[in-house]
Design a protein that fits this description.
alpha+beta, six-stranded antiparallel beta sheet
């Protein structure tokens, strides 16, 4: 009987957490959408991308040279939320190629699990060293598998890539948080995919 009495309130608490979580994401998940036109949303995302690069260069100046020598890069702004045992987040971003092709607008979505309460925002910057890596990211609906926390190791490249993490072949990643450049990058099963509306 004691087990049954405990099960009901726990189930109710879990269900409430999911409902609250979904309501929060519905309100905050896409800060660029609201009532703006497609053109305005694109402009907002490009401005956010430029702001993200400026912030990255301030905390890690060497990243500028890494990006300038790359095939292309992508920036994403994310709103994440974690309530009790469930969490997740969504965001928007853009892939910029160096050959003059128009920007490719993308979305991101993440789901995480774990005990805790918190709200955080962060920006992810991907750097593509080959065209194949960039195309795979854009066209294959790229996904982080599970919880990604890794430190970059470049035995032959010195400190040029300081602050970056290898997250896939020929793909580097920087992550900015409210406190600066993340020492460890967390992927949390995040999926990146093309925005149908913004790429028309």
């Amino acid at each position: 009987m004691k087990i049954n009495r405990l099960t009901t309130p726990i189930f109710t608490l879990v269900l409430s957490a999911f409902c609250l979580n979904n309501s929060a994401f519905a309100q905050f998940s896409n800060p660029f959408a609201s009532q703006k036109t497609v053109s305005q949303q694109r402009e907002d995302i490009l401005k956010s991308s430029n702001d993200t690069l400026k912030a990255l260069y301030q905390v890690q100046p060497k990243a500028k040279e890494v990006i300038e020598k790359s095939i292309g890069y992508a920036t994403f702004s994310n709103f994440g939320m974690k309530i009790l045992i469930a969490g997740g987040g969504t965001g928007s971003g853009v892939v910029v190629q160096k050959d003059g092709i128009k920007p490719i607008y993308m979305n991101m979505a993440e789901v995480q699990a774990g005990l805790g309460i918190g709200i955080k925002s962060f920006q992810n910057i991907f750097v593509f060293q080959t065209e194949a890596a960039l195309n795979d990211f854009v066209n294959s609906g790229w996904t982080f598998g599970g919880q990604v926390t890794a430190a970059a190791k470049y035995e032959t490249s010195g400190s040029a890539y300081q602050g970056a993490t290898t997250v896939a072949p020929s793909v580097l990643m920087y992550q900015l948080t409210d406190s600066g450049l993340a020492a460890e990058i967390t992927g949390k099963g995040t999926k990146y995919y093309k925005s149908t509306d913004l790429n028309k």
